[in-house]
Amino acid sequence: MPELFEFETKRLRLRQWQESDLEPFAALNADPQVMEFFPEPLGRQASNDMAERIRTLIEQRGWGFWAVEVKGTEPFIGFCGLHIPTARLPFSPCVEIGWRLSSAHWGKGYASEAARGALVVAFQQLGLPEIVSFTTTGNQRSRRVMERIGLKYSGEFEHPSLPEGSPLRSHVLYRLQRDQWGTRA
């Protein structure tokens, strides 16, 4: 079994998932505002299944989409971390950085803070050569986080998991090479 990575930032703790995370995760995934740039909000079973897949991947690799808590105040506000996409993307194979936080915690810098910590794990501890991130073209909030953490716009692509004609199919790709990152964390 690989070493399980967990870490803290100034305000946050990124950790393995717990049973107590399932209810707030389901509420987050059912929120139309949070899920605006996804095909649809998730029901409770789909949310639980997603959490279990995330937890299993962390157990297998030692890293993944960690549960995020605000130290001392909020036991679960969403997830952030690293993932190997299962979809066959034009830039595969790759490791992506991603996040999903409850809307009550937007605008506080938590996504950027957590993502910067995940970059430290990616580049310093795992030695990955590159991290990518992608979202629908209209998701300006996520695009700003990508730019804040140092990723650079690298073009657009059609996401193969979304049907032709879907307004969400057009995506933007951002990238960051380890040698461009340095130690900016």
Describe this protein's structure.
This protein has one domain (7-181): Aminopeptidase (3-Layer(aba) Sandwich). The chain contains five helices and eight strands, in the order E-E-H-H-E-E-E-H-E-H-E-E-H. The model has no long low-confidence stretch (mean pLDDT 95). Helix 1 crosses helix 2 (44-61). Strands 1-2-3-4-5 form a five-stranded antiparallel beta sheet, with helices on both faces. Strands 6-8-7 form a three-stranded antiparallel beta sheet. The chain is of the alpha+beta class. The protein is 30% helix and 27% strand.
CATH third-level topology:
Aminopeptidase
Query: What's the overall average pLDDT, rounded?
Result: 95
Mind telling me the CATH class?
Alpha Beta
Any guess at the CATH architecture?
3-Layer(aba) Sandwich
Overall tally of structural domains: 1
**Can you count the beta strands?**
8
Low-confidence stretches: none
Give the biggest beta sheet: 5 strands, antiparallel
Proportion of residues in extended strands: 25-35%
Query: What are the secondary-structure elements, in order, as H or E?
Result: EEHHEEEHEHEEH
C-alpha end-to-end distance: 28 Å
Assembly type: single chain
Strand order in the sheet with the most strands:
1-2-3-4-5
User: Which percent range fits the helix content?
Assistant: 25-40%
* Helix/strand class: alpha+beta
CATH superfamily: Gcn5-related N-acetyltransferase (GNAT)
Radius of gyration: 16 Å
